[in-house]
């Protein structure tokens, strides 16, 4: 509490943010490396995609409200709103591509089947596109961190702004785990399996 006061921070908000960063409100992490490709694709959809589909609309709403009501106090809030909206749009399209195109291909690779009876098409190109989109999402989250002084509320921050910042901390943490599972586990294993065919 004393360290927070010296920095002009609210101790209660910092405690919530630390809890969020430590995964206090998130589910226990799984051993992604021990899963089959199908299990891991299913896990990513059921855990990370489900979380984002719920959280992104809520974040957009909070960012819009904070920018509308408090943009006059902090000129960065309209850009925060724009970044949150861009991130939500990008991630929504990204998840659709994974769920409709890439993950079904990965499941086919895993089981050795093809819906059309034709050889499974290469996963290399869609994986490369997804990795590129991961970089863009990471840049947007980094910009949000910069615009909000590390997701730190000001002394006069309203409850909506505090909730938005806490949600951004949780989103950043989830996105790191989500991208790690795809870029470092799912995608390399799918590419290796594709090369064996």
Question: Can you describe what's shown?
Answer:
The termini are far apart. Helix 2 (11-21) runs parallel beside helix 6, helix 3 (37-70) runs antiparallel to helix 4 and helix 4 runs antiparallel to helix 5 (124-147). The chain is mainly alpha-helical and 197 residues long. The protein has helices spanning 2-6, 11-21, 37-70, 77-111, 124-147, 159-196. The protein is built from 6 helices and no strands. The model has no long low-confidence stretch (mean pLDDT 87). Helices cover 75% and strands 0% of the residues.
Summarize the structure.
The protein has 197 residues and is mainly alpha-helical. Helices cover 75% and strands 0% of the residues. It contains 6 helices and no strands.
Rg from Cα: 19 Å
* Distance, first to last CA: 59 Å
Q: Which structural class do you get from the secondary structure elements?
A: mainly alpha
Mean pLDDT: 87
Low-confidence stretches: none
Percent helix range: over 70%
**Beta-strand residue percentage:** under 5%
Query: Helix segment count?
Result: 6
Give the tally of β-strands.
0
**Could you describe the largest sheet, including whether it forms a barrel?**
none
- Global morphology: elongated
N-to-C series of helices and strands: HHHHHH
């Amino acid at each position: 509490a004393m360290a927070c006061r010296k920095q002009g921070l609210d101790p209660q908000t910092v405690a919530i943010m630390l809890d969020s960063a430590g995964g206090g409100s998130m589910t226990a992490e799984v051993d992604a490396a021990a899963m089959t490709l199908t299990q891991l694709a299913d896990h990513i959809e059921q855990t990370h995609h489900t979380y984002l589909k719920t959280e992104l609309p809520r974040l957009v709403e909070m960012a819009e409200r904070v920018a509308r009501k408090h943009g006059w106090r902090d000129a960065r809030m309209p850009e925060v709103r724009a970044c949150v909206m861009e991130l939500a749009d990008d991630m929504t399209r990204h998840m659709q591509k994974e769920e409709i195109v890439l993950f079904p291909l990965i499941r086919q690779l895993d089981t050795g089947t093809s819906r059309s009876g034709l050889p499974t098409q290469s996963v290399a190109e869609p994986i490369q596109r997804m990795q590129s989109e991961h970089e863009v999402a990471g840049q947007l989250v980094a910009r949000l961190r910069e615009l909000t002084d590390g997701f730190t509320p000001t002394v006069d921050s309203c409850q909506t702004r505090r909730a938005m910042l806490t949600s951004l901390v949780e989103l950043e943490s989830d996105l790191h785990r989500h991208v790690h599972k795809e870029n470092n586990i799912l995608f390399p294993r799918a590419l290796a399996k594709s090369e064996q065919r």
